[in-house]
Amino acid sequence: MIGRIAGVILHRAMDHVLIDVRGVGYIVHVSQRTAAALPPVGEAVALYTDLLVREDLLQLFGFPTLLEKEWHRLLMSVQGVGAKASMAILGTLGAEGVGRAIALGDWSAIKAAQGVGPKLAQRVVMELKDKAPSVMALGGALTVDVAAGDEVIEPAAKPARRPAATVSASASATADALSALLNLGYGQGEAAAAVAEAAGANEGAEAPALIRAALKLLAPKG
Fold first, then answer.
1. Digit-coded pLDDT (tens) for 116-126
2. Residue 78 CB burial class (10 angstroms; 0-12, 13-18, ≥19)
3. What is the chain's mean pLDDT, rounded?
4. Mean pLDDT value across residues 55-63
5. Per-residue pLDDT at 159 exceeds 70
6. Is the domain covering 66-135 a CATH 3.40.50.150 domain?
7. 177 — pLDDT class (breaks 50, 70, 90)
8. Residue 16 and residue 27: Cα distance in Å, rounded?
9. Which of 71, 145, 149, 151 would you label with 192, given CA atoms 20 to 30 Å apart?
10. CATH of domain 169-218
11. What SS3 class is residue 48?
């Protein structure tokens, strides 16, 4: 199983990238969102990967974070969701957006992805809603992209570069806020939905602000 690739970009397209790894070129399929965020040709890149194996086909799919790879794995577990649909959903919403939509039961957000109809979107929400809180809680731990010591060997005697390690502040804040609410005794489902709604209304907020906003949403009405 190829779980991760680090190398130099030789070619970029809307839905895939060709990465040179010590003289071997790997075609890695990516979402449009990931493709748009990739560095230019000739620059170093690292992607977590999932290998799809069929009788007559081997395809690598790439993700900028382990959190996104985990959501891809879960989306693919839903009947009717293939790799193309999963990448379309992740490309439309991103990892945090998928978690938010599923936790809130917002199937219309899932339906916004190309090729995903209302029935399939509803099935995704129904089958994954109970799993969303655990993935959201792991968000901070599943978001580190490239290890600080990674080194990429580049062709044509270019100096080796080290891709910068990246961490999604929003995923980490969401995970911390959800953990805090669970420690306060709230159920996983209601806590995840409150944090997801708070994160959607307070984009970029840190954990303390998300906790306060979520607690307001959970407060008894009336």
1. 999 999 999 99
2. middle
3. 84
4. 90
5. no
6. no
7. confident
8. 7
9. 145
10. 1.10.8
11. strand
Rounded average pLDDT over 95-99: 90
Estimate the crossing angle of helix 83-103 against helix 188-201, to 10 degrees: 100
Take residue 113 and report the two structure tokens written for it.
């992805």
CATH superfamily of the domain spanning 4-63: Nucleic acid-binding proteins (2.40.50.140)
Structure tokens belonging to residue 66: 């382990």
* pLDDT higher than threshold 90 for residue 210: no
CB count within 10 Å of CB 178 equals: 32
Four-point Cα dihedral 32, 33, 36, 42, nearest 10: -90
Token reading at 51:
């290998």
Amino acid occupying residue 199: A
